[in-house]
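User: I've been trying to design a sequence by hand for this structure and keep getting stuck. Would you show me what you'd pick, starting by listing the structure so we're on the same page?

Assistant: Good idea, let's start from the same input. This is the structure you sent:
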């Protein structure tokens, strides 16, 4: 497959959240057929969906990859497992979560993967970090900056450096 640009959303709310995100990026950088470009800063966000859990740290990363969409998904899931993620309840607490937000030139929907991510435009924890590294990125008919302007981002903040 030819190389494509793609954008990932990363999150963690268990253990040392910043270290988990850093370890995920290190693991992604080591994957053949994938290079990590711009990475956003960290954003502390309230849990979404299942709110009975601690806050997340979220980030976004731009990547370039020769992996096909499902192979990229498999690599992301293998990275999560390698870093200690176990399946719990839907939207439950997790050591690491890596989602593919968008892959340039790819639109698909099957039982394993939908691209672009179906909720990219209404989740502040995806949009704030993504807007930091790719505000002019257009997904479908909407730019990241325009989606962010229409999204509620209350409760999301940049944590103080340690």
């Amino acid at each position: 497959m030819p190389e494509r640009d793609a954008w990932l959303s990363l999150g963690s709310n268990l253990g040392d959240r910043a270290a988990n995100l850093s370890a995920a990026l290190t693991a992604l950088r080591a994957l053949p057929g994938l290079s990590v470009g711009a990475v956003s800063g960290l954003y502390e966000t309230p849990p979404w969906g299942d709110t009975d859990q601690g806050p997340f740290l979220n980030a976004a990363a731009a990547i370039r990859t020769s992996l096909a969409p499902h192979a990229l998904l498999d690599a992301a899931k293998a990275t999560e497992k390698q870093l200690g993620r176990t399946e719990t309840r839907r939207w439950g607490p997790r050591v690491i979560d890596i989602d593919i937000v968008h892959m340039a030139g790819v639109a698909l929907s099957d039982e394993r993967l939908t691209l672009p991510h179906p909720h990219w435009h209404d989740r502040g924890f995806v949009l704030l970090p993504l807007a930091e590294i790719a505000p002019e990125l257009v997904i479908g008919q909407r730019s990241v900056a325009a989606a962010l302007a229409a999204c509620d981002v209350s409760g999301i903040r940049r944590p103080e450096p340690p």
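That's my pick for every position. To get oriented when you compare it with your attempt: The longest helix spans residues 69-82. The domain at 4-149 is CATH 3.30.70.560 (Alpha-Beta Plaits).
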